[in-house]
Design a protein that fits this description.
The complex is a heterodimer of chains A (about 60) and B (about 140). Chain A is mainly alpha-helical and about 60 residues long. Chain A has 2 helices and no strands. In chain A, α1 (about 10-30) runs antiparallel to α2 (about 35-65). The radius of gyration of chain A is 16 Å and the shape is flat. Chain B has about 140 residues and is an all-alpha fold. Chain B has one domain (about 25-140). Chain B starts with a helix and ends in a 5-residue tail after the last helix. Classes of the chains: A mainly alpha (about 60), B mainly alpha (about 140). The interface of A and B includes residues 6, 12, 26 and 29 of A.
Chain lengths: ~60, ~140
């Protein structure tokens, strides 16, 4: 059975966004004990991931110029 | 005086950190099951919401990687980077076994997103390693 019919083509940003969501959920659950802390840490990781994406994007834009 | 009041909790925290983990049946079963089925290590310990969220995140990430035509590494890749890729992939446990058995994850270079897919699959496995360690910590009582 092949999966060739199911090729999913995401943009760079969508792929990075989904990556950030899933990684943040796992980091939040595993790195903190209390439920409230887990949510806060998960959101913190998500923001840091997104911040990294935008920072890297602007750095590449500057390097290209 | 202040030193006396802060010394007791500090001592208890040190005692907890240095305490020998209790090896129980659950401390072996939960990580093993969590590796085979992502999130199951938490579910078996009745951490329902955590287990479901971990399962949804890791399984979805792995499947998205496959749908993006990501490559699944073989154990005998030869190249050191291939071996590291395999170490990441194997973390997904049952998902990796099923993928290999079905001969999925061949990696189509024709698709620009295939490289994303390969990374998604590796990271899904690595995240499952973290989830397995967390299930173990719950089983030995180090984490609530």
């Amino acid at each position: 059975m092949r999966l060739e019919a199911m090729t999913l083509e995401l943009t760079h940003f969508t792929a990075a966004l989904l990556f950030a969501v899933f990684a943040s959920v796992v980091f939040g659950i595993t790195q903190r004990n209390a439920a409230r802390d887990q949510v806060r840490y998960g959101l913190y990781c998500f923001v840091m991931f997104l911040g990294g994406v935008f920072t890297a994007g602007w750095v590449m834009w500057l390097v290209r110029r | 005086m202040a030193n006396v009041s802060t010394a007791k909790p500090k001592l208890e925290a040190e005692k907890l950190a240095t305490a020998q983990p209790q090896i129980t049946r659950m401390s072996v079963l939960a990580p093993a099951l969590g590796w085979l089925i992502p999130g199951a290590g938490h579910l078996i310990q009745r951490r329902w919401s955590r287990g479901v969220l971990l399962m949804a995140s890791i399984v979805t990430m792995f499947l998205l990687g496959l749908a993006m035509q990501g490559r699944v590494y073989r154990p005998n890749g030869g190249d050191i980077l291939d071996i590291l890729g395999f170490v990441g992939d194997i973390g997904a446990g049952g998902l990796y076994i099923v993928t290999r058995a079905m001969d999925w994850g061949q990696g189509a270079i024709a698709h620009a997103t295939a490289d994303f897919g390969t990374k998604y699959i590796i990271v899904a496995g690595l995240l499952n390693f973290i989830a397995v360690a967390d299930a173990y910590h719950i089983a030995i009582g180090k984490k609530p």
